[in-house]
Specification:
By secondary structure, the protein is an alpha/beta fold. It has a domain of 205 residues: Spore Coat Polysaccharide Biosynthesis Protein SpsA, Chain A (Alpha-Beta Complex), CATH 3.90.550.10. 47% of the residues lie in helices and 18% in strands. Strands 1, 2, 3, 4, 5, 6, 7, 8 and 9 form a nine-stranded mixed beta sheet that branches. α5 crosses α6 and α9 packs antiparallel against α10. The two termini are 38 Å apart. The model has no long low-confidence stretch (mean pLDDT 85).
Length: 305
Amino acid sequence: MNNPKISIVLPTYNGERYLAASICSVVEQSERSWELIIVDDASTDKSLIIANSFAKHDNRIRVVSNSVNKQLPASLNIGFANAKGKYFTWTSDDNLYEKNALAVMVEYLDRHGCTDLVSFGMDHIDENGKKIVEYVPIVKRHILELAYRCNIGAAFMYRASSAKRVGKYDEQMFCAEDYEYWIRIALNGKIDYVDDMKLYSYRIHKHNLTATKKREVHEKTFLIQEKYLYEFIKKFELGYLECAILIFLTHLKKSNKEFMRYWSIFFVLWIYKKLIKTTAMFIPQKKWRHVFREQRAIRIKEIKR
């Protein structure tokens, strides 16, 4: 298709066991205006043969074959470099969309023009496709959670214009490239969460990246949190208590020495705030109220803008 509404990238590496089912879950979508770009990352099994067989019978499917293994973030960048859609998403070779998934996500972004990315709910299934347990967030997901954990599910869609603004996936962040990318979108736009609708089935099995690369996932996650934490605090203008909670959660698993260093910083900030309040006692109340009224008026103008 020359002008598809949605571009879906499907990276695969030795995914022959579930790949056909994953592709079928795209082909069977109620929304028909899409293109599927399958990026085979130098598979040594029959993944490329399977992908080409689907492309042969559906001109909305294209296949890109890497000559050498480049890993997931590079494959995503290759796929989206060839994308033509207004909206972007990507899926895995072992997971499945519900039949109305694309239609629901597109309809949401069409209605919410200020939203850059929307994340819907999902279910977990086992190797045979049987639902393991219904996935329910402990609390309603919130954008600030991104500072200490990846809370964007596998059913997501974002604007091509947003992708252009934030750039490519970081190829140095393999195992946590999606988390790093969502944070950049959050810092440069708006993310919405819809928890009460399940549009995706995430397959749990022993060959998952999250299962085989746990150590790498944790290491990259800490690097990302350390890099972006204070940008989150600055953008969302967090108070001291919120800052303390984020610092606590993002450094909970770090060494005691580093953990204490961050809490020392918070303690100094808390003392500073107390000193400001004490100083305010010696400023005439009318002047102090005038200062706050000016600050509030500026904040309201920024929100309206």
